[in-house]
Input
Amino acid sequence: MLNTKEYFNQFDVTFAVEELDNEAAATIQGGYDLIVYDGYNGTGEVLGEFNFGKAVLGAGNNRISSVKINAGRWKFSDWYYYSGQFEEFTNTGTINLDSLDNRTSSIQRF
Ligand SMILES: [Ca+2]
Output
C-alpha cells in the first residue's frame, strides 16, 4: 500500500537535491546574471534566474519587486514582448523596482 507521507517526503528530498545541483552548477559557471525576487532588497521568493531575457514571464508575472544584477543591462517592461512602460538598469547590484513594482511581464537583456 502506498504510504503517502513517505512518498511526498521522498519527493521533497529529490527536489532539494535537484535544486542544490542547479545551484552548484550556477556557482561553477559563475552564477546567473540576473535574479528576480518577490520582495524588496533581494528578499522573498526567487521568481527567476536569467542569463537571457524572457518575452513572457510565467509564474513571476506581475510579482517582481526587486532584482539582483550581476552582469549585463536589463529592461523590465509592464507588458509582454518588452512593450509598454519600462525601467532600464545598466548597473550591477540589488535594485528595487519603482513604477514596475509588481507589474513586470517581460525582461529583456540589451
Ligand atoms: Ca512582489
